[in-house]
Amino acid sequence: MTATPTGQRRAGQRPEDLAHLVEVAARLQQAAETVIEGKPEVVRAALTVLLAQGHLLVEDVPGVGKTMLAKTLARTIDGTVRRIQFTPDLMPSDVTGVSIFNQDTREFEFRPGGVFANIVVGDEINRASPKTQSALLECMEERQVTVDNQTFMLDDPFMVVATQNPIEMEGTYPLPEAQRDRFMARVSMGYPVASAEYAMLVNHAGEDPLDRLRPVTDAAEIAQLIRVVRSVFVSPAVQRYAVDLATATRQSPELRLGASPRATLHLVRAAKAAAALEGREYVLPDDLQRLAQPVLSHRMILTSEAAMQGRTVEQVVATIVAVVGVPDSGSGPVGG
Question: Over 50: is that where the pLDDT of 274 sits?
Answer without folding.
Answer: yes
